[in-house]
């Protein structure tokens, strides 16, 4: 069977599938509604498939339409990526990488990676977006980003994960708190304090690991606030709303009136890992992975302050 379809027909279909309204889709495409309706009807006739159910003013995708929408969305994204790379090569820019990352990766790890990579690949463009662990995984699976920096122990099949930094946790207190690095013995001293923690939705596995620290210390914490940003945590700690526990690397890059005490005697550690889709065909990704120094290394022992 021969299908007389062009790329524009697929884009017409996706516009209607997303809007579920022929007039709105036509406006979006800058064509007439009758013209769009004819194109979609011709597409259905050529394929021998009903893609939409039309009920007066209501438009609903058929099961075949739902499937076609999902597949075309993913594959046209790949096509857009191919065309973008071709344009970058033509312009002498060579390529682009989209990064996702948790906030702590931006303190030292990602800047170091980018500086090293730029030395050998000066014309590469980078897109950088902070996002939680699960959103990075979703975006990697849908090839919306090329590489992620996460705090996860496992990832779905098809993704590759490799540790890049293993580090201790640090206790965060106001600088004027009665407990400091000289008289701190254990978290038991702080069992009646409130704690401000990263929101569990940001990384459930990370949150569970932090909660295990409290369990091993013999008490359940009073959690007064949850947030997703380190700066918010430090501002709340600074103003006496509670204490916190964060990865050691999050000491860097902030100038707040707080103190850090490294929890170097507990069994819990946190690992920052790099994750990517092994089927990603972005030619720049392979070069970047080859440049990254993967190993279970401890964060430089500069001490907490």
From TrEMBL:
Which terms does the record give in the GO molecular function aspect?
Answer: DNA binding; DNA-binding transcription factor activity
Superkingdom is: Bacteria
This protein's GO cellular component annotations are: protein-DNA complex
Keyword Transcription found: yes
Q: What PROSITE patterns does the entry give?
A: HTH_LYSR
List keywords of the entry alphabetically. Answer: DNA-binding, Transcription, Transcription regulation
Tell me where in this chain the HTH lysR-type domain is found. 5-62
Q: Family assignment?
A: Belongs to the LysR transcriptional regulatory family.
Stated name of the protein: LysR family transcriptional regulator
């Amino acid at each position: 069977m021969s299908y007389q379809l062009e790329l524009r027909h697929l884009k017409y279909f996706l516009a209607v599938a997303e809007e579920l309204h022929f007039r709105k889709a036509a406006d979006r495409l800058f064509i007439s509604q009758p013209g769009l309706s004819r194109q979609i009807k011709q597409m259905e006739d050529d394929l021998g498939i009903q893609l939409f159910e039309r009920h007066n003013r209501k438009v609903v995708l058929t099961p075949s339409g739902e499937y076609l929408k999902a597949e075309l969305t993913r594959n046209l994204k790949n096509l857009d990526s191919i065309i973008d790379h071709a344009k970058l090569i033509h312009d002498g820019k060579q390529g682009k990488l989209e990064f996702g990352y948790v906030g702590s990766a931006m303190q030292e790890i990602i800047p170091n990676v980018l500086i090293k990579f730029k030395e050998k690949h000066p014309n590469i463009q980078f897109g950088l977006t902070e996002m939680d662990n699960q959103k990075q995984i979703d975006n990697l699976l849908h090839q919306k980003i090329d590489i992620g920096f996460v705090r996860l122990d496992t990832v779905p099949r098809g993704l590759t994960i490799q540790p890049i930094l293993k580090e201790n946790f640090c206790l965060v207190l106001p600088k004027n708190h009665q407990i400091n690095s000289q008289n701190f013995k254990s978290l038991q001293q702080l069992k009646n304090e409130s704690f401000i923690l990263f929101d569990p939705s940001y990384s459930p596995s990370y949150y569970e690991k932090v909660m295990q620290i409290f369990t091993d210390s013999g008490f359940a914490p009073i959690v007064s606030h949850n947030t997703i940003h380190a700066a918010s945590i430090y501002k709340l700690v600074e103003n006496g709303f509670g204490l916190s526990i964060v990865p050691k690397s999050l000491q860097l890059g902030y100038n707040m009136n707080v103190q850090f005490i490294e929890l170097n005697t507990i069994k819990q550690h946190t690992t920052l890992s790099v994750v990517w889709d092994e089927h990603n065909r972005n030619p720049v990704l392979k070069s970047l992975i080859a440049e990254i120094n993967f190993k279970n290394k401890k964060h430089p022992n500069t001490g907490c302050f």
